[in-house]
Design a protein that fits this description.
EC number: 2.1.2.2
Domain Formyl transferase N-terminal: 19-198
Helix content: 25-40%
Number of helices: 6
Strand content: 15-25%
Pathway: Purine metabolism; IMP biosynthesis via de novo pathway; N(2)-formyl-N(1)-(5-phospho-D-ribosyl)glycinamide from N(1)-(5-phospho-D-ribosyl)glycinamide (10-formyl THF route): step 1/1
GO molecular function: phosphoribosylglycinamide formyltransferase activity
Radius of gyration: 17 Å
Oligomer: single chain
Number of domains: 1
CATH topology: Rossmann fold
Number of strands: 10
Binding site for N(1)-(5-phospho-beta-D-ribosyl)glycinamide: 28-30
Length: 222
């Protein structure tokens, strides 16, 4: 969704998050950071389920080692993307999540998923949005010649990395950086930012008003 395609009226969403479901596609470094945090009662939330779009990935092993139930919903097992999206929605719904965290999840969720969980799905992106959305944010930032990159945590909407921004952290681009070296440094910052944002949502809630996302409960009217 672009800046000139805003909803007719602001969306107001306030959530606290005790039950987390994490969507994964790969090694699970962000999942590992959340699992490390969730044993601390002060964090305020626990990972209760992990759902992957493919089997035999390290993220699933991390979840199982932590005693967290898992599910796999492969796109190739369904006749079309809409059917996959409905199945993904049901798989996540089994865990009754308060918040869904897309942590390195390499698929876009669809209408069925957002109809059920919209306003309580967050995602990370390795760039300072709204600049450099999409699958190659690090590469695109380097190609553009930026001096500062970073990472963002957003509320997922119908677009590609277009949702309201919840948190961001900057990462300087070094003169000898390539895509791999910059991405690795961004990932370190991204993990810390994600854990911080999820913990703050768990303890204080998340309010979304139009393009603006604010950690903490909505202010009382009047």
């Amino acid at each position: 969704m672009t800046a000139d395609q805003q909803p007719a009226s602001p969306q107001h969403v306030t959530r606290t998050a005790g039950r987390l479901v994490v969507l994964v596609s790969g090694t699970g470094s962000n999942l590992a950071a959340l699992l490390a945090a969730h044993d601390d009662p002060a964090f305020g939330a626990r990972v209760v389920g992990v759902v992957a779009d493919r089997p035999d990935i390290r993220a699933l092993d991390l979840a199982r080692d932590a005693g967290v139930p898992t599910a796999v919903v492969r796109l190739g097992d369904f006749p079309d993307r809409a059917a996959w999206d409905r199945a993904l929605t049901e798989a996540v719904g089994v865990f009754s999540p308060d918040l869904v965290v897309a942590a390195g999840f390499m698929k876009l969720v669809g209408a069925a998923f957002l109809a059920r969980f919209g306003g309580r799905v967050i995602n990370t992106h390795p760039a300072l949005l709204p600049s450099f959305p999409g699958a190659h944010g690090v590469r695109d930032a380097l190609a553009y010649g930026v001096r500062v990159s970073g990472c963002s945590v957003i509320v997922v909407d119908e677009g590609v990395d277009s949702g309201p921004i919840v948190g961001q952290e900057a990462v300087p681009v070094l003169p000898d950086d390539d895509e791999e070296s910059l991405h690795e440094r961004i990932k370190v910052v991204e993990r810390t930012l994600l854990v911080d944002v999820v913990g703050r949502i768990a303890r204080d809630g998340l309010t979304v008003e139009g393009r603006h996302a604010r950690l903490g409960r909505a202010r009382a009217a009047g």
